[in-house]
Amino acid sequence: MTEGIALTKTGRVIEIHIDRAHKKNSLTADMYRAMTEALADASRREEIDVVLVAGKGEIFCAGNDLQDFLAGPEGGAAAFAFVGALASFDKPIVAAVQGMAVGIGTTMLFHCDLVYAAPGTRLLMPFVSLGLPPEAGSSLFAPAVLGYAKAAALLMLGEPLDVEDAERAGLITSIVPADDLLAHARAKAAALAAQPATALAVTRRLMKPDPAVLAARIEQESRLFRELMQSADAKEAFTAFVEKRKPMFNKGRK
Question: pTM for the whole thing?
Fold first, then answer.
């Protein structure tokens, strides 16, 4: 148990609940580490077949806690470790999403097998607006799942993706009434856990992207992310966010 992350076990399913509603379920380094360890533990345990990820309160996940992220390199390192754990996880992941899913709140969904969302949910990946490139393999997944033009609006302009468009594209499995969302996701996780384990694992591997290609893209994104974190644009974007003003980017560069 880590502050902001609650773990529960139901049958053969481990549930990871992002439990920091007063901060819109934004993620700290400690929370990333707790989720990374939870995935590692679930992978090791033979009695666990499925992981379910959910967020407490009205918002699934608002992305990084920027104050924590800017406090030192630990935040970035913990986030990248979590991304690696997600990409290499060897069992099905189910997600229950409501309200807003920002940054990693959206990019983690590309690594989930079944994603259920409440009406009104919006997905947002404002990386470029923060002077940064995409992460978690989203530069590979988003065009493949959504089509290039829709992915460009989402990634390059930072435009939100509503739940209906996400469902039509196939990023969201189905839209579920908010009051039934967690129960529905739990039922689907239990149904996955009841499937023949070997056939399920093999099918999942066949459906996923080439692991080497995905790992290479995540590494490329992570390297560029670290580089651009030091750029003038990123520093201005983060400063403007903290100061609650519109950023003023240097447009005089060649």
Answer: 0.92
